[in-house]
Amino acid sequence: MIWRNKGHEFDVYAETLLAANPQMKYYIFGAGILGKELMLVLRKYGCLSAFIDNSTDKQGNKIDEFDIISFEKYLEKRDGQIIISASKENRKEIKNQLEENSLKYRTDFFMYDEFTYSIFPIISVYYFDKSYVPLAQVSVTERCTLKCKKCAHGCFAVDNASKDLTLDQVCKSADCFFSKVDFIKEFVLIGGEPLLYKELAQAIQYIGEHYRNQIGTYAITTNGTIVPGEEVMEVCKKYNILYRISNYSRRIPRLKNSYQKLRDALEAYDISYIFSNEDDEWMDYGFDYVDRGGDESELLRVFDACQAPCREIRENRFYFCVMARSVSENLKFNIGENDYLDLNKLDRKKYKKELLEFTLGYSEKGYLDMCRHCNGAEAENIPIHMAEQMEKA
């Protein structure tokens, strides 16, 4: 989307959101992983009332200080909006349950993704006067232990001798980001394979020591091929790091042993992790064959339909799409060098709204140069084999 009224793009919509829930009270429907992650955000803002769950085994219990209640008990008060934070398999059923009880979608309740990525960022700025970003990443290295043909970051093309970010760059990235962002739902160290980064323990320590209270979920995304050493494990435990572990065992069976070693090590240190399902499909973004040319109307269409959630911070540069930046560099497209928001140049008085608007898809030209080489949202309809290797890795 092209900036037409910078700093005021959401003024009217924000009024509608605030009027629908003037007390800013929320209930999380679903006492599972997603619900617990969202709890970290809403608790920070003091606007979570309780969890709702259909399981009678969970009702009457608590998650931290918050009660788990039945939907029937919620209906007795009906004093706040609901965010459906259940698995994809259960969301439709819960949505029907709410609508059968005269609750209106996007008035009385929201789905987890839209609330987290599109609604709450607006509420955070306009109601709480706090800048909020759902997800941002620091790519500490582009090097990887695997050579996946369709890597969404193009890391298969990166030589192992390539330079990583320096520790100073990582620290400056965090400093700049958190000077403008009051709270983030999830802050992630990624790669490449981040466990290759030699100064990972120091990076985790610095960010954790200075900014842990501004982070809901502090995470590392790994392909599971490396077991961290004691220094990394200790600092991960100290700052409550969550490991998100990819699962490529169907395509690369030998990794099963590596996964088990990593999980055993994390459990020994009482470090949380989420191990992905053993799927066998990725989406084909088409970086290696798509070329849309320079038709701006087409590029605007592709960008607006995509709305990728993965922001990246690299010193003062806040990139809308981490894949666009990394693929452009790693595959030598060398375009989009200016497709970022310079956090150091934000207007002092209205930076929160400008940052909000950029995070939700507004920019000077309304698209990224790398959109011309990406399938965007259409990638969901182009399944490919997961983690197919270019060579023996």
**H/E element order:** HEHEEEHEHEHEHEHEHEHEEHEEHEHE
Radius of gyration: 21 Å
If helices are DSSP runs of H or I spanning 4 or more residues, what is the number of helices? 12
Shape assignment: globular
Helix vs. strand class: alpha/beta
Strand percent estimate:
15-25%
Please state the average pLDDT score.
96
Oligomer: single chain
Strand order of the largest sheet: 11-10-9-8-7-13-14-15
- Catalogue the unreliable spans: none
Largest sheet: 8 strands, mixed
Task: Give a short synopsis of this structure.
This protein has 393 residues and is an alpha/beta fold.
What does the model show?
The structure is a single chain. The chain has about 400 residues and is of the alpha/beta class. Helix content is about 35%, strand content about 20%. It is built from twelve helices and 16 strands. The chain has helices at about 10-20, 35-45, 70-75, 90-100, 110-125, 165-180, 200-210, 230-240, 255-270, 295-305, 320-330, 350-360, and strands spanning about 25-30, 50, 60-65, 65-70, 80-85, 110, 130-140, 185-190, 215-220, 240-245, 275, 280-285, 310-315, 315-320, 340, 385. The strands form three sheets. Strands 11-10-9-8-7-13-14-15 form an eight-stranded mixed sheet, with helices on both faces. It has a six-stranded mixed sheet with strand order 3-4-2-1-5-6, sandwiched between helices. Helix 7 links the parallel strand 8 (about 185-190) and strand 9. Helix 1 (about 10-20) crosses helix 5. The mean pLDDT is about 95.
